[in-house]
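Ex. 9. Protein: Proteasome activator subunit 4.
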Amino acid sequence: MPYPKRNADDGGRYQPRTFAYSEQLPFAVEGKAQRDDVLQEILKQLYIAIRAKDFSSALHRTIELRGWLGLKFEMAREQRAKLVKLYYSLALAPGLGSDAADEFLRMVLTLTRKDHYLKPGKDLTLNWRPLWNDIKAWVLPLEVPMSNRKRSAKQLLRLCANAHTYFDPTERRAMLEEFLPFFSADKPQNAFIVVGVLNALLPSHPAPISEPQSQPGDFFPTLFHLWSIVNRSEAFDISFIDVLSRMARDHIHCSHVPFGSHGIFTKDQSDLIFTAILRLTRIPVRQGSSPYTPLGEDVGAGKYIRKDKKKYP
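Predicted C-alpha cells for Proteasome activator subunit 4:
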C-alpha cells in the first residue's frame, strides 16, 4: 500500500500522513493546485468579511474552511499559523455574539489539535494575556470591570489546553507576577484558583538560555513552595503533577537545562512528586485513614478551571 514520503521540508506537516487518502479513492480527486485555489478563495472571502465586520459571513467562511480541512487537504505551516492567530484574536474579541465566538474558538482547537502541524516558538507564539483576562472574569470577577457577556468557562478551559503550548516561555516570570498576588493560604478558594490558573496557562517548553528567571531552576522553588503550603489537597496534587510532568517531558532534549539522576528536579522535589503520586493511588495505610483533608475544593470559582475527571482521569 503506498504511503506519503517527504525527503525535504515542504512547509507542511512535520509528520507525513501514514495513509495516502487521495491515492486510495476509486475516483479522481482535485490536484494540489486546485485545492490551494479553493483555499485561497475561502481565505479571500474570509478576509473581506472580517474587514467589513460582517461576522455572520465570516462564520459561514469558517464553516467552509472547516470542511476543506475535513477533506484531509494539506495546509502550509505559515498559513496555518496565521489562521490560528486570527481565530485566537477573534475568539477572544469583545462584543462578538456567542455563536460566532464559539465557532472561532473551535477553529483554534481544530488548527492546533496535533503538535505535528505547528511547533511552539518556531512556527507559532500566542499572547496569553487576552485569554487570562477572559478567565479572570470567571474566577476573579471582583478584579475586573463588569462585562455584558462572559464566554463559556468550559470553552475557555478547552482553549487553554491547546493554547498554553504556544505561549512564550520567556513570559513565565510575568505570569507568576500576575497570578501569585492572588494566592492566599488564608483563603483556600483563592489558592485553588491560582494553582488552577498556573496549570492551565503556564507554558512548559524550554526558554532560551539567555532568558533570566525563566529556567526550571528559577521558578521551580516557587511552585514547590506553593505546593508545600497546602500539602494535603487532592486538587493541588493533581494540578502540580500535571504541570510538572509537562515540564519534565518538554525539557528532556533541552541541552542547557541540567539533567541529573532525578531529571530536571532535585532529590527533594522528586520525593515530593512521587509521594503525591502515591497519595493519589489512595492505598490504605491504616483503617479509616485518608491522605487528604476536606478543604472545600469544589466550592468557589476554582471549579471553573478544574479539568473534567472523566476526560482527564
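Check your answer against this statement. Residues 223 and 240 are 8 Å apart (CA to CA).
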